[in-house]
Amino acid sequence: MTDHDHMPPTPQAIRAEALESLLIEKGLMSAEAVDAVIVRYSERVGPMNGARVVARAWIDADFRKLLLEDGTAAIEEFGFEGGQTEKLVVVENTPETHNVVVCTLCSCYPWAVLGLPPTWYKDPAYRSRVVREPRRLLAEMGLALDDEVQINVWDSSAEVRYMVLPMRPENTDGMDEAQLAGLVTRDAMIGVARL
Length: 195
What we know:
Nitrile Hydratase, Chain A; two-stranded parallel ribbon; disordered N terminus
């Protein structure tokens, strides 16, 4: 392994490890409890859940219709763990319209379908700029949209959270639901990327 292959831990990672060690040492938490939380957010709550929802919507017209009418009701059948989906609204990207999600007040976010929010989602610069200059900010994030594409910015709150239904990529007609889910990214479900 070269030095390039092993990145030094970030200050946040060092701090988190120190806190974890202290809590375990003081008997306030067990290593097993920490492992359970990690498994929960990496395997049972996360963007793979949202990807499954998107893939189902791409192949099942009735499910897609329900998802766009009542996201909360549509995802009930999946039995996802985690919260923040009590009032889930799903907005659909089309060739003419691109949707992007933000929470301008804090970082309201549908954890159960998107997993942990990315650091940039909570950043005040993202929260303000995506409202003021969405086209420019998206371009800086790697998503250049034609001027003809209308951009809708959806502001999540404690009462309602949003998720984007990305457009299905071309040349995926022969793929099954699991294969399609593997194409979906968290950033596409927030609206800062396309597939």
